[in-house]
Amino acid sequence: MKAINHLTPKQIVHELDKYIIGQRDAKRNVAIALRNRIRRMMVKSDLQKDIVPNNILMIGATGVGKTEIARRLAKVANAPFTKVEASKFTEVGYVGRDVESMVRDLVEQSINLVKEAKNEEVKEKAAENVEDVLLDILIPPVKAPGFSTGRSTSTSSNGDFDPEKASEQELNEKTRERFREKLRNGELEERKVEINVKQSNPVGVGMIGNGMMDDASMAGLQDMLNGMMPKKTKKRKVTIAEARKILMEEEASKLIDFDEVKEEAIHLAENNGIIFIDEIDKVAKSSKSGNGPDVSREGVQRDLLPIVEGSAVNTKYGLVHTDHVLFIAAGAFHVSKPSDLIPELQGRFPIRVELDNLTQEDFSRILREPKNALTKQYQALFGAEDVSLEYTDDAIEEIARIAFKINEDVENIGARRLHTVMSHLLNDFLFDVPDTIEANSKIMVTKDMVGERLSSLVQNRDLSQYIL
Ligand SMILES: Nc1ncnc2c1ncn2[C@@H]1O[C@H](COP(=O)(O)OP(=O)(O)O)[C@@H](O)[C@H]1O
Ligand SMILES: [Mg+2]
């Protein structure tokens, strides 16, 4: 299994700081929750099993970083992660996604993580094997001379050493070594070879299922079908470069024991998994509304409960216990309040963190500072065409100001507004490169330019409602 990340809470927050501006409380609490898992793993006594994760409820308006924090946390911890929307679930017995599907998603992510790690482990060995396979295709080996029994004419009783064959074999070996060298140096990448490619099975059970089965049994059936069908192979002529990719996958999977992958993935999901339940406020019974649709909302909460409390969910890879999965729920709670959730569910999310609304100052930092900041993303996009994009400081301030103002005037969508504003601002440039703005040009975004391109939108509320 992949070693658990031994980051301290402070280090975790430091990692999150690279991507998320502000939201100190939320960062600190998710860091604690993550560290508590590591602490739990280190507890020797029977108590270990009793230590339940400190599930977190994030309360904050849209676009202030709730999802981003959870997602980054999972990255930091190298933990399987899945995000679901509570409002997408329906009560058991109704058409729609059942709550257990989130656990199946989680395991799927876990499988990917483990596979990736295993692939990495066997990468070198697989590459060696691929090289052998390619070499065999290019220069098929001749049989080694040895104690052949075929030649009854031979009078020598002491082995049938055949100098002709030996030299043939020697020559073959030499040629192979020469080609091996060429392969390694990448001299043959463009050369075409014929390889056998495994074909995926065309039969799917999707049509048969038609909502009559849940995802797990459907996937199980598909696996069974796949197992029953003989694996078809097809000869394909491809370049060595392509062949390498195709063979690499095959050779790697030969070296990996899939039962082991399943086992580790389940363990990883159970002990390190993070499930992010978004829009939890949408299934809370708001104090105001009548009792129409609330019945089913409460039903969804009741269905969520056993999973959050800890139960065993059947997946196509085996049973997954959710007792130690970390759940992070999030919602704006504009209409309903956390106390409108059923008490049992409230009790399962003991840590409440409120996220701050972002200020104009935060906006300009978000534009500039995160590792993946929008300004950097656009620089990279233009950079790909050898066009340099620079922003003056006051231009960034102006973008932040305008984004903030539109949020106030039209609708507050948080930092998401920065995306729409930036894309509108740079739209013409994105169109003109490389036709009229050629490689090696320089674009300077100034405050005046920002004003020119965006001010009409800011003043015209109707317009900005549609465009920004
Ligand atoms: N505090 C923040 N720091 C940096 N980027 C942020 C912050 N808040 C939101 N963003 C950016 O805004 C977008 C939406 O954020 P997200 O976390 O999905 O919002 P929500 O709170 O609605 O889940 C993302 O692209 C994210 O990078
Ligand atoms: Mg979100």
UniProtKB/TrEMBL annotation:
Residues 52-359 form the AAA+ ATPase domain. Residues 145-176 are annotated as: Disordered. Gene3D superfamilies: 1.10.8.60, DNA helicase RuvA subunit, C-terminal domain, P-loop containing nucleotide triphosphate hydrolases. GO terms for molecular function: ATP binding; ATP hydrolysis activity; peptidase activity; proteasome-activating activity. Residues 148-157 have a biased composition (Low complexity). Signal peptide: none annotated. InterPro entries: AAA+_ATPase (IPR003593), ATP-dep_Clp_protease_ClpX (IPR050052), ATPase_AAA_core (IPR003959), Clp_ATPase_C (IPR019489), HslU (IPR004491), P-loop_NTPase (IPR027417). It is found in: Cytoplasm. It comes from the Bacteria. Keywords: ATP-binding, Chaperone, Cytoplasm, Hydrolase, Nucleotide-binding, Protease. Transmembrane segments: none annotated. The keyword tRNA processing does not apply. Residues 162-176 have a biased composition (Basic and acidic residues). One of its GO terms (cellular component) is HslUV protease complex. GO terms for biological process: protein unfolding. ATP binds at residues 21, 63-68, 278, 344, 416. Residues 358-456 form the Clp ATPase C-terminal domain. HAMAP family: HslU. ATPase subunit of a proteasome-like degradation complex; this subunit has chaperone activity. The binding of ATP and its subsequent hydrolysis by HslU are essential for unfolding of protein substrates subsequently hydrolyzed by HslV. HslU recognizes the N-terminal part of its protein substrates and unfolds these before they are guided to HslV for hydrolysis. Belongs to the ClpX chaperone family. HslU subfamily. A double ring-shaped homohexamer of HslV is capped on each side by a ring-shaped HslU homohexamer. The assembly of the HslU/HslV complex is dependent on binding of ATP. This is ATP-dependent protease ATPase subunit HslU. The gene is hslU.
